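Thread title: Can someone regenerate the structure for this chain?

I was given the following input by a collaborator and told the matching structure tokens would be attached. They weren't. Posting the sequence so someone can regenerate them.
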Amino acid sequence: MIRHEQREVGVIAEWQAVESEWSDHRWRVVDLLPGAAQAPPWTLLASSPGVRRYFAGNAELHLYPLETDTLKHNLEGPQPAVYVFLRATEAAPGMSLLGATVCAGEAQAHVDTGSDLVEAVPMPPDLAVWIGDFVARNHVERPGWKRKRDRDDRGDARSGDRGAGRREEMDADDE
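Best answer:
Regenerated them for you:
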């Protein structure tokens, strides 16, 4: 059985007015709160001209033993991050919180959708300690693996039509 751990964080997002011919605003994730907050999602926390700050909601961070390579890579990078996913919606205030992760591979999958806003937020020190402990307990170095190319009868790497040599053998058998 694969044992995983999880922890909740509160997400603070900000709507900011911008002067651009393409948009009149942008969204940014500006902070993470330790643990789950009790406020309803998209509670307005502060408002000033051109800026509105919201509690976007709570997100669960999941750590899995088979993903310790990416967790380790995140922690050892120049700026360890928590990646938060937002998606535009018709409902006020115009965004929804999809979730968060500390796994760069999962963050990249959301980037690849092309429709999600993925924000890298500096990792709070208490999360870095939690993740570091998880990696220390679960990480197993795995040797690199490289696929070898198929070889033809002469020992050369095949090029072109992969089935060409086999067809020639079949034609010779027919004679």
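The two ends are 58 Å apart (CA to CA).
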